[in-house]
Amino acid sequence: MTAENSSQGSGPEALKPEEELRAGRSPLKDAWRQLLRNRLAVASGIFLILLTLVAIFVDTSIFTIFTGGKPEPLLAPYHYAEVDFLHPNEGLFTRTEEGDFYIFGVDYLGRDILSRTLYAARVSLAVAIVAATVSLIVGITYGLISGYSSTRTDNLMMRFVDFLYGFPIIIFIILMQVYFKALSRHGGGEGLAGTLINIDRAMGGIFFLFIAIGLLNWLGMARIARGQTLQYKEMEFVEAARMVGASNWRIIGRHLLPNILGPCVVYETLQIPGYIFLEAFLSFIGLGVNPPTPSWGIMISETYQALRTYPHEVFVPAVALTLTTLAFNFLGDGLRDAFDPRLRGEV
Amino acid sequence: MKRKLFTLMAIGVAASMILAACGAPQEVVKTVVVTEVVEGEVVERVVTATPEAAGPMPVTVHYNWGTEPPTADPALTTDTTSSSVIDSIFMGLTDIDLETKQAIPALAESWEATEDKIEWTFHLRDDVPWVRYNPTAGEVEQVLDDEGNPRMVNAHDVVYGIKRVCDPNTASDYAWLLYVISGCEELNTTDPEAENFQEVYDAMGVEALDDYTVKITLAYGAGYFPQVTTMANLFPVYQPIIEEKGDRWIEPGFIVTNGAYVMTEWVHGDHMNLAKNPFWPYWGTDYGSGNIEQLVGYMIEEDSTTFAMYENNEIDTSGVPSDQIDRVKADPVLSKEFVNSPVNCTYYYGFVTEKAPVNDVKVRKALSMGIDRKTLVDAVLKGGQIPANAFTNPLNFGSWGGDPEIAPWALPEDMGGWGYAKAKEEASALLAEAGYPDGEGLDILLMHNVSEGHARIAQAVQAMWQEAFPGMTVSIETQEWRVYLDTIRATTAIEDVPHVFRLGWCGDYPHANNWLHEVFNTEEGANRIRLSYDDPQVGDLVKEYDETTKAAQVADEEEAKALYKRAEQLLVDEIVGIAPMYFYTTVNVTKPWLHRSYDPIQLSLFQWTLDMDAKTAAMR
Amino acid sequence: MTRYIIRRILWFIPVLIGITLVTFVLARAMPGGPFDFAGDRTIPASVVANLEKKYHLDWPVWRQYGQWVLDLLRGDLGPSFRYRSLMVQDILRQTFPVSFQLGILSMLLGLAIGIPAGTIAALNHNKSLDYVSSFVAILGVSIPNVVLAPFLVWIFGLRLGWFPVARWGADYTQFIFGILPPLTADFWLHAAMPTVALGTGISASIARLTRASLLQVIREDYIRTARAKGLKERVVIWVHAMKNALIPVVTIIGPLFAAIVTGTFVVEQIFGISGMGQHFVDSVNNRDYPIVMGVTLLYSVLLVIANLVVDVTYAWLDPRIRYD
Known about the structure:
Chain B is α+β, with helices and mostly antiparallel strands. Helices cover 30% and strands 21% of the residues of chain B. In chain C, helix 4 runs parallel beside helix 12. Chain C is mostly helical. In chain C, strand 1 and strand 2 (41-42) form a beta hairpin.
């Protein structure tokens, strides 16, 4: 136990000494302080916040939602679909006779790469965050329950996971595509289906993409969480908690969860580039964003063959992707470090 | 504990080994593994090839088939890779002259038809033997008949080959191609268990008048029939080997062929090699002017990988990935090896003419006019493709592609057309007339199947339309290939189809009938654009179209050409059922020591020449 | 433990039946049958009916599935719809070993680099060695195969000419026991770049997981006890800490093994390697149901075996884990 001077001073918020001890330091505040000490994590966090701001303000759509009308590019110099047939594939720092300036060059249709990369942040970030969250929540819950339960239940639950794993994804994807696209084409409807379809339309076709990615990815998380749970549930502190009379749910939530969170979060941050590429693959197969909406995954898979001829078309989105992945990873690491009950107390 | 784990690991390894087939350990010698069905059991016989005798290197070309050929059986082929293989190892009644696109003799020396073009008689050569490759001896040998003489290809083989395609037991996907022959459709739709099956089989309109004469009776007059017989599906095959080996008769070591080359080795998914058939009678003539003795054929699907192998001198000819075209043209060495060659395919966007708002011919025409084909070809595709103002590719008999009398608004000025500026103006006027000034109120869905190339073109066209008609909305949707084909069928419900869909057509045989009639005829074609006599605007024109293409089937040459001109005019300019975009080309690089032709289907390997000395010198 | 293993093996049957049955049914639910189109030509209905009859697609689904199972028990997986002269078991026999070899090599590379790298990083937590190796690892995870592979081909294949640019170094006519490759120089030369392309991503993942896990384990009490007992640091780490630290690593290796070994489409495509990966994707696109079933079956079998091995390894690594 770390000693910490908890002199709160006097005043209306001052706590009585016993309450103070019991209230102690909130784990959350501790973690936050720990996180702030990790410079890389902080830098990554700032980067991601900036990226999110860019994603929001890349054009004026945040305003046009309320005022109506077509969104215009704001932070991006050009609209992502603005073509320039006269100057395809030009490289970095191209200035054309018509007065256009393309910092990172243009792609095969003459569209500004910088603008497309910025717009693409929206799709890639949204996919990454939503998919990771869904996967974490579903996977950890499933894995915790499975790992903590009796062997029979564990067995059944894991066999179900095996079953889902063995199933060829592509069939699933095609069937989902057929089903969802058919739904959406039959126009907006009433009820739940109708609402879902309208949301999807508004988001350029990526809503169903999120669902698809989430549904396809919680399995690995479940296995990791279960493995960790199996390990931790045999430990003394769990034993102790049980003896004190803690209910199963309390053990799971208060004792096991914080311990397994570490590797789970790290695993999840490792999955994020995978999600972005899964999104590109799905878009390629027709279940993703509709062209010309850009995403980093699509930008890379459209241009990797031209690596030797027009490297800028590949490298700009690839660098954006790498930086974002780095940020998620360092941040993930920092979070794990911050939340680890054992790391706390070591300065 | 450790021991248990070890045991488990051992079980795991053993399990994966059990998953593999049991076979005798093989040494690292080039072997041909021949699998046969012996009395119902599958047995493997390992046949070891004798190492080649040392001597001058045979003239060898290194080639890429592009993918594993789904089959080498003429009756079952439906794709270009299989056809390329079959064209090299088999020979049919006729072949196509690559210049004139007319039928020339191959297995048949001559042929004639009755006035009504219904009865055709083919006279065969008598000096083409059936051959097979003997892997143990490493040579090509002729198949012998009962008296020990070389067994020549005869009329019975031709009859068997053709009937086999229509035979429902063969389950040929392309049987319908032969429905032009009388009795084929009946045979193909008769239940093999039915009592009258043998009768129907015998009644089909193909018979051997004698050992070297074949008479074919068609279901209707078709002047283009000698071009139909160039297709791989009608090639003769050797009955005894098929009856003996069943589905496996095409494996190397079993397969019996009659063409310029034989299959020596086929390692599925990896490579297929061919060797010269010395018994083929055309060697040394104009038709068989080549000198290739061996072909080593890989199966690389990825364009950039193939190109890398070319740069590494591992193959002698390769396609150029579209992103590398600029670099190749600028490179001092590669630019000299660069070849741009026409291909018998047309890329087009079809309109579902029953679906609003493209059910209005003015809207369709405006959209077709609004595509800047020249920019598409020059800036986006860059493969030397040709803007198309007609459907039939110029490589076919009866084509009017490139003639500015047809749909001049589709052609750029340097091809004698209006050019895009004028076309765009006209298009805007048309749209305003139709009730959509500047495209205001127009909401179009464009669909294509998943492919990077199609996506580029679709996005380019979307941008062109948005720029020309700022008020309109264009959305793009993609679907997986088979789902896509299923969606755009003529029978799909109208809410589920798009307004505009992308397709391409490659000729089965080089005659406009295969294009204008077989694709868009309202009865006999796939008719995905849903042409109908009942259309209030163009119904009469559609009727005229059907009649025109039907009449061209029996007309003589000059008349047929004129009829096809009218048909194109109707299809592209007056009915505007489709918006033809461009005629395909192939972009290749070929090593300087290889001289070859570039038609992707008629490989004509036997006309390629390779300077082996130059090649070996360069590889050193 | 033995009872546990036996029970798990008994579970194989229902799981496999579940997977294959669902796949069987859903494959046929996809729009567009295997014979409806050839190229983009629509095949007339009568011809389609004919073809479907030959392959029993006109039977009720349950009967088709039953027949498939019966044939399977005889070792016959049926003829491919697309490659008419080949049986599915032939195709698997020809392509699976290649993917298997590539997969094993990549996994070995991944483990050989990943575990030491992760360990070094964890033992030097928050020092420069940690940062450097973490950075490199994340880089490895962030660079997609689709960019790395052509890049390798360009530099090491074309520019330097060290390695051949495509194909695998041995084909199915040369495999020992049908699955092991002849270990010739030619084989290694061809295997080098694909293994690196595939293995870097794996080693990065493993390095990260090892690091995270080891970091946690080192701070546990029993490690402190071991140190206090005076054991050499090396022993403490490798004998006591690693076993527990490797549990998350083992968790992902199981399914990863099954997935990698059944072929990675991208790497196989780019290097022109004729492995099973292409069949995974193409068979669905071609609606070649027999290959879909064959490939799914093989993948599922490997998966359930791999998962069992993983679970048993858990128990070996951490004696506190019990399966009662």
